[in-house]
Amino acid sequence: MKCGRNMGFSEYADHDAVGLSDLVRRREVSPADLLEAAIERVERHNERLNAVVHRAYDDARRVAAGSLPDGPLRGVPFLLKDLNLDAAGMPRTDGSVALRDRVPAEDAELVRRHRAAGLVIFGKTNTPEFGITGTTEGRLFGPCRNPWNPDHIAGGSSGGAAAAVASGMVPFAHASDGMGSIRIPASCCGLFGMKISRDRNPWWPEDVMRALPLSVHHCVSRSVRDSAALLDATGFAEPRAPWAPPPKQRPYLEELSREPGRLRVAFSAERPDGRPLHPEVKAAVEEAAHLVESLGHAVEERSLPINQMLLYIALTPVASANMAAAVAEISERLGRELREDELEPLTWSIVRSGRSVSGVQALRGMRWLARLVREVAAFFEEVDVHLTPVMATPPPRIGHIDPLAPDPALLHQRQAESFPFTAPFNMTGQPAMSVPLAWSSDGLPIGMQFVARYGEEATLFRLAGQLEQARPWRRRHPPIWG
Length: 482
What we know:
Order of helices and strands: HHHEHEHEEEHEHEEHHEHEHHHEHHEEH
Largest sheet: 8 strands, mixed
Number of helices: 16
Oligomer: single chain
Mean pLDDT: 95
Helix content: 25-40%
Radius of gyration: 21 Å
């Protein structure tokens, strides 16, 4: 296939991934043309944003010029997050100096599915060390900045992915979510972000992640249908997955045009810890509740009936022991103990705490978390969807949550101030999405979180389709765009 024209920026960015693949299918543009358009945008914006940390242009050009699989997203440029995902021949650092020389020899199963869908992978995006923080700042790569205002965070840990999509480098990008790491960057950057149900997408070969099964892989996108299309291509169970969710009834792309029915929606405009919510965020969630009601749904104000303090008391020893185990495995692979300068101060503080956790403490924490799942499941017997803000504040400034600061306690406090809403649903494994429905008075996005029962991505996609039609956001662009 050879196309005789070169796409200008507005034409490339006017299409989402599904639209670009349709152009390729109709032979109106070639995969090589799309790739060069994406590379041009990376080179134009990345110096200011620091979103892309590894470029694989030459390999991608060979792929784009060759015989791509005839998948549903054929020819669309795509970026991978540099965390917990192997791509053959591309560095995988997990954002850490300790792993800066690691280069996997084969693709993870999810990357195989990305390639089979026809995506052209041409780089990797910025992430904080081991994805720990809700901001993408760190020693190895430096801070990733928000296209709406570069003095503010792009969120974490998928901040590089979100900045790349929001600035128009790519229509969507791979992202992952362990405590909010898809939803928080989507909220910060004015994007759609779906945290899928546990094990909806494959983990192989990272089966160790199932020891503390909080994380999932998917994407951040400008359109809802791109998220649905990608999950249709990748979201089927691994043959050996231990906790595969219920299979979907039909393609998620078809769900977007289906009526969701009259949903019972509970919303909360209060922080779980009882402290005041930022006034602009509070106004935004109340307006979102009115919008949902205007779409014909039954809406009531009702908070999630769990004790968030107990939740974090239960999680802390489990998560810190898990991090200590991960670092021990890195040391084993390297054949030596890690030096002080190879991990950031925040990571070392978690590792040292984890080394002192007893088996009894860890298992008691796991038991409390199991009770939490039952409590939340009972709540969702009475409601279909739970609505909260994604964040309690608009995106903070760069440096406010600093993983290199010498006081980890202050960092944890500031994370708790900004990100109190997302973590419970990683622990329960439920699907949850960030929808860009509001902006602050100074022009920063404020995302709304919608949560459904385990395995019910279809419910969220139907509702997202309604919301996108009622309050379209794709034509609202940040200053760093084009």
